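Bump. Still looking for High affinity cGMP-specific 3',5'-cyclic phosphodiesterase 9A structure tokens.
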Amino acid sequence: MLEKKVELEGLKVVEIEKCKSDIKKMREEMAARNTRINCPCKYSFLDENKKLTPRRDVPSYPKYMLSQETIEALRKPTFDVWLWEPNEMLSCLEHMYHDLGLVKDFNINPITLKRWLLCIHDNYRNNPFHNFRHCFCVTQMMYSMISLCSLQEKFSQIDILILMTAAVCHDLDHPGYNNTYQINARTELAVRYNDISPLENHHCAVAFQIIAQPECNILSSVDQEQFKRIRQGIITLILATDMARHAEILDSFKEKMEKFDYSNEEHVTCLKMVLIKCCDISNEVRPMEVAEPWVDCLLEEYFMQSDREKSEGLPVAPFMDRDKVTKPTAQIGFLKFVLIPMFEIVTKLFPEVEEVMLQPLWESRDRYEELKQIDDAMKENCAAKHHGTLQYMATMTEKN
Ligand SMILES: [Zn+2]
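Sorry for the wait, here they are.
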């Protein structure tokens, strides 16, 4: 009898522990859901039955006439991405697909294009950085590079469609916490993708979940073979945006650059990977007034993550720690060791990139170095004052 009682008690303890962990899990899920914008079409792996139709349909999607001035400006990295409402950004994206001849060449239904874009918008979350405006920036930079480097003369229209569509979809449903967090916190995404680029795999999966909806399928007119190529191309490009693979991708590109060959498919794929990487982290290419607010947005997202990591007892990366990072220190390293070297290699293939994209990067690096010097001088001054006060207090104490 006693043995049975002990066994039963033991089972109860196990059950209580299980309930506790279930409650914890449910709390986390609820918190995760509450951070999303309330949108019936929000795609979630937890809710497989939910449809991916846009929350508004096309008739209520206001028509924006883009002025000739806007249309011209849209082709350049100097375009001010902060001036526009989501609906206006949607119209700009729509314009790019028409202007590049993608609507015509792939027989995209113009209404489907509008619906697809609406659904894309609805599936970006309201994060400080990884939001729909970031998606717009990356795509607009891609559009600028296509124009600046005359990529339509070098690439097939399929490649142009892959570049643009991968840019539009590359951060879909980003939760605002990076891969390191996903892996360390053992989130659902990390478990699903076995710690291998969980976020990028998710962005890509959501992209094709959207395409799978007939009313949003911009690829409904392409044949099976073309669809396969486009799908593979988009997957490769979105997965290439994982910065953990930066060195690997750049090394492979450098190797091919020694004798770059546009008729070699591997070479072209590698170039496309570098192009989307360039656009993804291209904020500093933009004029200072446009670029600088993005640094604050990124730090806000980083601090949100590091605060959460601290509270959950997870490791914190120094570059995300609000006690360790400042705007200039964050930017100088990134510009010197990531951005500038990458754009320098691209310049070898496209000399026109130097003046339009590299020059602003050099200027930005110099500006942040100046700002850092001012920061350092102020800190030193502060320390000296602090030291002086201590000395003064010591002498006063001695006198007393
Ligand atoms: Zn991105």
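The chain has 17 helices and no strands.

Edit: fixed formatting.
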